[in-house]
Amino acid sequence: MTGTTHLATIPRTDLAVSPICLGGNVFGWTADETASAGILDAYLAGGGNFIDTADVYSAWVSGHGGGESETVLGGWLARSGRRDDIVLATKVGQADGVKGLSRTSIRAAAEASLRRLGTDHIDLYYAHVDDPDTPQEETVAAFGELVAEGKVRQVAASNFTADRLASSLRIADELGVARYVALQPALNLLNRDAFGADLQQLLEREQIAAVPYGALAGGFLTGKYRDGGPAVDSPRAANAVRRLDDRGRRVLAALDEVAAQTGATQGAVAIAWVAAQPTVVAPIASASTPAQVADLLAATSLSLDAAQLQALDTASR
């Protein structure tokens, strides 16, 4: 890689990842194949190596059935020859036809993801959401099979509560199979509830990495959505504008203040705040153009001081 971004190792693994994970939800959605390639090239050139997607991306788009992001990413991997430079993460559990975390769904979804990605292994394979209708023993054992077969290097969980994550870890230990090494919770200055103290304490105790998603709150925390500001032409604009309430304005004001102090953008400050939270190894953020990648990477070299972190904490409460 040509960049100088330092890598951090996910505890209990040999996965060394950059401190900002590139979200792949835009691939095949707001970024077509050409734009996606430009984003990926810029991210790697800047020192990034950690890419996150899911089999269900982008099924929410009319005419899409899911798998579009993996397909675009797989095409880029084949053309670029950079598979060995990437820590590749994807998820199972929400795509039509393979929903849930039964053994049947996990195995079928994994094979489909491997085909779309054009690779023989997934570096980090997430349970996208918890599945209370499937015994955890079945889910954990199925993930363990994929690791034992070499199709997956490590497994992880997304959107799990502390209790369900703890019981999954216990079952993995009892079965003697791979345990979850990372958790992907929602976390940003406007959404702190999903990553509470109970989860943070569990992750610290069990040496599990947090890889939070939504660091920019759908683009709102970049500061481009303002009262009386120009309309933003984006599929996310409607949701972002809804955040422009008293709390949203307070957070934007704090971001403006810290951005002025540091010379960084509001988006970089928002990502740096997430990165500073306990057990966080790499926040996930997306870019819709290559130009936006620089802002994401800038956050990796931004260290907020105690007063700046406190100002952002206070505004976001």
Automatic annotation (TrEMBL):
GO cellular component, one term: cytosol
Family annotation (Pfam families): Aldo_ket_red
InterPro entries: AKR_Detox_Biosynth, NAD(P)_OxRdtase_dom_sf, NADP_OxRdtase_dom
Positions of the NADP-dependent oxidoreductase domain: 19-315
Gene3D superfamilies attached to this UniProt entry: NADP-dependent oxidoreductase domain (3.20.20.100)
Keywords: Oxidoreductase
GO-annotated molecular function: oxidoreductase activity
Origin: domain of life: Bacteria
Protein name in UniProt: Aldo/keto reductase
Native species: Nakamurella alba
Lineage: Bacteria, Bacillati, Actinomycetota, Actinomycetes, Nakamurellales
